[in-house]
Every structure is written in C-alpha cells, then in structure tokens.
Amino acid sequence: MDALARLQDYFRSLFQFDLADLDFGLYRLFHLERAEIEAFISKQLPREVEAAFAAVVGQETEQTRQRYEHCRKDLLESLGDDALLSDGRVAPEKREMALQLRATRQAVIDYEAAREQYQAIEITEGHKAEVFNHLVAFFSRYYEEGDFIPKRRYGMREAYAVPYQGEEVFFHWANRDQHYVKTAERFQDYAFTVEDLTGKYRVRFTMAAASVPKDNTKGNTRFFFPRPDLATYEAGGQGFILPFEYRLPTPEEAAQYGSNSRAQESILEEARPRILEAAPDENLRALLSRPTDEGEGAPAVLLKRLRHFCRRNTSDYFIHRDLRGFLARELAFYVKDQVVHLLDLEADLDAKRRVVRTFRSLAEKVIEFLAAIEEAQKTLFEKRKFVLVADYLIPIQHVPRRFWSEIVGTKDRPGNKEQLAEWERWGLLNPRTDLFNPSGAANEAFLERHPTLPLHTRHFDRDFVRLLMARENVAAYGQAERFDALQADLETLPPLAVDAFFFDPARRDEAGRRIYSVAGYRPPLSLLERWLPHVPRGAAKISPGVDYAELPAETEVEFVSLDGEVREAVLWYGDLRGDARRRATLLPSGATLTDRDLPPEPIAVTGPQEYLFEPDGAVIRAHLVEVVADRLGATKLDDDIAYLTAPRPGTTPFARCFKLEAALPFQLKRLRHWLRANDVGQVTVKKRGSPLDPQELQRQLRLEGSRHVILFLTQVRGDPHVLAGEECGVDFE
Predict the structure, then answer these.
(1) DSSP element (H, E) containing 686
(2) Mean pLDDT score, 327-344
(3) pLDDT at 732 over 50
(4) Strand, coil or helix: what is 378?
(5) What is the band of 482 on the pLDDT scale with cuts at 50, 70, 90?
(6) CA torsion sign, 286 to 289 to 291 to 297?
(7) Which of helix, strand or coil describes residue 198?
(8) Collapsing DSSP states into helix, strand and coil, what is residue 645?
(9) Whole-angstrom Cα distance, residue 56 to residue 354?
(10) How distant, in Å, are the alpha carbons of 66, 69, 88, 106, 122 from that of 111?
(11) Could you tell me the CA-to-CA distances from 257 to 174, 251, 420 in Å, in that order?
(12) In 10 A of CB 731, how many CB atoms?
C-alpha cells in the first residue's frame, strides 16, 4: 500500500465512516456529509497536495526567476551578448577569462548560482510521500479508538508530557478538556475479514434500527438483537452483511434472556446458529465457526466478533471542547519536533521547506474538517435542556404547623384538593377517615404520626413554595427557630417591628433581562423610604452595575467579588454602614478597601513601564483604582482606563501583576510580526477601552509558534495600544 492509499484509509477512520447509517441525530448529519468527505479523501486530497506544492513552488520559482534574470542581465553587460550558449551555460572561453578578472568574476559566480537554483526547483514523488506519512504520523499521535486524547507528544517514542508547573501536589488526567459521553447514542458499523486458501470473505455488522433513551439519560437496559432474516450476501464480492437492532426486549424476550448483564450473551448465543444458516457459502460458515485459537475453550470467530461489536458500541467516549485549538497548537510543535531537524541543514533545505509548508497547509484543512465533526457532536451533547417546571416533594414535618390546617381544610371544605387526591391515589391515606376528626376538623395528630408524608409542591402557588424552600435553607444553617415566614404584598405591607431589614428585590424583568435602574426593581428601592423611619438599620441588595447617581445619600455601597469576579453589591443603612461611602471587598480573603484610603493627590498618567496591574472588578466598581495605584507606587496608562503600570512587581490582593514584554501602538501587521519573531502560538486577549473583538483578532493573527502570551488591548494616553506579557510568577509553555 503506497503512502497516499494508507493516508486515505486512515482518514476514513478519522472522519468516522464506520458510524452506522441511521436516520436520526448525529447519524443523519454524517449520512448527508459522507459523500462530500469521501470526495475530499479520494479526489480532493491528491489535488490539494499538487496544488499546495504548486503554490509553494510557484512562489519560489518567481522569486528565483527574477534573481536569475537579474544575474543574467549583469553577466551579459559585463561579458557581452555572446557570453551565453544556447543552453544557458557560460561560454567556456568567456568563463575562463572572466574568472581571472576581479571585475567580472563575481558576475559569473552569481549567474551560475542563480541558474543552478532555478533549475533545482522540482517536486519528487518522495516529497509527496513524505507529506502523506507526516499527516498519518501527526494525527495518529492523538487519535485513540475514536477519541482525540489531548496529550502533548515528544520525540520519536511519543512519550507525553504532563503540564507540571512546580506545584507540591498536581493531579492530571489524560482526557482533560473533554466531555464524557456514554455511547448509547453513538453506533458504529463493524467489519472484519476471514480467509483461507480457498478465498477471502468480508463480514460487516450494521445497525438497521436503534431505540435510544431520550436526552442521553439512563433508562431501561437495551440490547443488540441480530437480524439473520435481513442478512444479505454478495457472492461476487464475497461480502456478508448482518443487520442489528438496538432496543428494549419484548416481555417474551425478557423472560427468555433475562434483563441482567448476561442477557446480551444469551441473545448472541441463541442467534449464532441462525446467523450461520443465513450465510449461504459453506466455506464462510466453516471459517466463522472455527475457534479463534488452539486453546481450550476458545470462542468461535463469529461469537468473538459479535461480542466485540456489542462491547464497542456500549463503551464510553469523549468529545473535545476545543479540538481545533488543540490540534493547531500541536501542529506547530510537531513541525519543530519531528519534521525539521538539525541534520536537514546539511541537506536540501529548500526541499524540506517546501515539504513543511505543504504538510502544514494540508494538516490545517484536515483539522478544520475534524473540528467541524467535533463541533457537531459537541452541539448535540451541550444542547440546552428546555426545563418547563421544577417541583419538589417535601416531608410534612418540614412544613410549618400553622399551614397544616390550610392544606387539609375541613371535611366540608377541603383545603388543597389536588394534594389530598394525590395522597389517596398514591395509597398513602384515606382523606375521609384519616385527615378529619369526627367533628370534621383537620386531624393534625395523623400528620404528626406520619412526618414523612410527602407534600408535592406542584399543587401549591410559587410564593408558598418559595417560603418553604427559604425555611429549609435557614434550617441548613441551624437557624430555623429564628425564622418566621410571612406571605404578603410588600408594597402594601406596613413596616414590621423588627430590628433590621434585608431588602432583595427582583432585578430582572419578565423576559430575564437585567434591570440596572433602582427605580425599575420589583419592588423599587424607593419602597424603603416608608420603612426607614420605623426600621432605621438594614441592607439592600442591588446590581453591581448600578448608577451612582441613583444611590441614596446616607448609605454605604459595598461591591463584593469572589475569586476575582464581581458577584454582589449591597447598600448599608443606619448604624450598619461604616465610615465610608464606597467599599470594595474580596472573598474569600475578606480584604477590603474604602474611599477613606484615597491618596490626597491624583495619580499620574505615564506610558507603559515594566509591569502592568489589572485591578479587581470590585475595586473598579467602587472607584478605588487610585488607592491600589498609590499602594503599589504605580501610574495610570490613561485617565479613563483601569490599568496601572510600575517599574517593579508588587503583591496585592486587589490587582493581578503582569510582566510586560512589549508595548506597541496598535497595528495588526506590526503585532503579527512581533508574535512571529517571539515564537508565540497562543494568546489570551484582554481588553479595556478597545472596540476590537478578541475572538476575531485571534483569528486574524494566524499564530504558529509554541509560546503563550497575554495581549492587552487598551488606550495609552488616548491612543490605541497593544501590550504583551505574562502573569507574574507563572511560567507558560
């Protein structure tokens, strides 16, 4: 098998041609695309190789031709129009004379070198085979039994490296950055060959029908049922095709085979004789019936293959979260690690460069194909669940006793009729005899004796259910005795005699959109004006993006971030407020800043220095960036941008530190040149004060190196800039 045929066979497995030809979900997608993929493998791929080499050679040929014509012109001007023979060689007598003279020697040397280089540009079949072999070698490094395993491979022995950063304890798993998927919704056809001196036969197991659990959920056990009655045999091609069904067993089949793990084995054992009968060729039946080896108890070939088919289609697999990015990064590393070697410098370096460029061009096209397949599977796997409603069963002992009489009611006027009917339907009680006393009142003693009687929240209004859930949440913290639920309309409820209030209004509208104005909250923040004369202390939860102009004067606003992400904003009233107007608090450390820490003088604005600081979001929202700058001895890059810069690194919980490598006025071409010159192959893009789309920028950069850097798109004294660096104390590959 030549290199191209080997590559084509390998790509058919990569593009999952063995997926069953079923008519739902992923299978329908692949059925529609299979003809296009086969055309790519069998026809387009060889043309792509020719075109890729032609493009590389064409570019080099034009450059070399121009140099050749320039050197030819110089030679003729130096030696005369008769200096060249008809085949392009320098006339011997002219050459000998010219080499003896310093003024003409270099013209002859330059011309002959340019002519030799111009004639040397050719592509051999060996170069094409090298490209094909590299494509197989590269993709087979990461492809294992249907999955792309994200292991970085090193060297010819393909050992893989763990991304260890010096941690005292580090946990790593080979399938990191992948989704785990059970294969109840992924079926592959299965083919094998058997042969002896009389002939060779190809046997293929296919999926005729499949019944899968909805939404990838666990359900009743399904089994593979062979269908010998639908088997076909092609005498000319010596091919035997056996269809299967994947479904729940019928009651009769469940009684015959059982429903445990041995049921599948029983189904295959029972079907084996019928499968052999369906094969009309006597020699094929003999080959399928022979033992797999000479050991005692070895299974027959057919039974072993049937077991393998069923096991293969019920094994789990993985979906890569970012296959395109992973393979693109590994491709750049593979070229340097495996394709280009120091010894190549002594060989035909130009030919090697053509091979590398062609290999990389084709590999990028294949990566796009594979990424499209993976994205299709990921889309099906990550599909959002459309949840209409969520209800709970709550033991009656967790429902406040004062609600019991409302739930049960009286014999003449039952309370929640749906709940009472459900209890009776479930066989838990008889409402007429168990729930009511002889007088007709609610029999709460029965509920006391049956504390686990389940109350189904679907039969109650949402507000009542929220009160029950709130009570359970408070009980989880051991404070149930201090909790008293009240269902009322807060806008009409008079102020209560309590020590303090906590106001948590709805901050989204009916469509789920955020409400940023405090006047649009439900109820609005202005409702507290009626409570404050009676309950002067309290807190109100507000949106972190609130407009400062809307905040009441006699309050303190606190912005809270958790692990660097702003999560909450709280207004403090009365003696619960501190001695500041603005506060930033970081969790889980509890570190805090206030506007009382502001420096007396404004922070200067300068150009980028050796280090960049990115303040925490809570610091930015609390308008306390200058406090952090003062503590770090840093300056601002721009009056309106929350980036700081300093000549020295600093340690503070309120900002992240980055070591800068470059600061450039933004220009795409200049940025590409810097990234290429510094071997950058992966970037993380951050932006403040820039209109650019980070994802679109990453696509335009066309990265090829092995390093990782962080790019900051921002303003420096009002002008757009891009800064490049890495986080202090972190070593990137």
Answers:
(1) strand 680-687
(2) 72
(3) no
(4) helix
(5) confident
(6) negative
(7) coil
(8) strand
(9) 6
(10) 12, 9, 10, 8, 20
(11) 38, 10, 42
(12) 9
**How many C-beta atoms surround the C-beta of residue 499 within 10 A?**
7
The structure tokens listed for 54 are: 């032609």
Find out whether 672 and 699 touch, Cβ atoms under 8 Å: no
Question: Residue 484 in contact with residue 471, Cβ under 8 Å?
Answer: no
CB-facing half-sphere around the CA of 280: CA atoms within 13 A: 10
The amino acid sitting at 566 is V
End-to-end CA distance of the chain: 39
3-state DSSP percent of the chain in helix, strand and coil, to 5? 45, 20, 35
Residue 333: which H helix or E strand, with range? helix 323-334
On the 0-12 / 13-18 / 19+ scale of CB atoms within 10 A, 424 is: middle
Upper half-sphere CA count for residue 279 (Cβ side, 13 Å): 24
Interhelix angle 45-79/349-381, rounded to 10 degrees, is 150
3-state secondary structure of 352: helix
The torsion of the CA quartet 647, 625, 728, 687, rounded to 10 degrees, works out to -110
Please name which of 443, 481, 486, 466 lies closest in space to residue 394, comparing C-alpha atoms. Answer: 466
User: Comparing C-alpha atoms, which of 541, 538, 579, 585 is closest to residue 559?
Assistant: 585
Tell me if the pTM is above 0.85. no
pLDDT per position as a tens digit, 21-49: 444 445 555 555 666 677 777 777 777 77
DSSP letter for 385, please: P
Grouping H, G, I as helix, E, B as strand and the rest as coil, residue 240 is strand
- Token pair belonging to 421: 């009917």
Q: Which strand (E) or helix (H) includes residue 613?
A: strand 611-615
Nearest 5°: phi and psi at 655? Answer: -160, 150
The amino acid at residue 410 is T
pLDDT tens digits along 561-587: 998 899 999 999 999 998 999 999 999
Number of helices (H), then strands (E), belonging to the chain: the values are 22, 26
Q: How far is C-alpha 316 from the geometric centre of its chain's CA atoms? A: 18
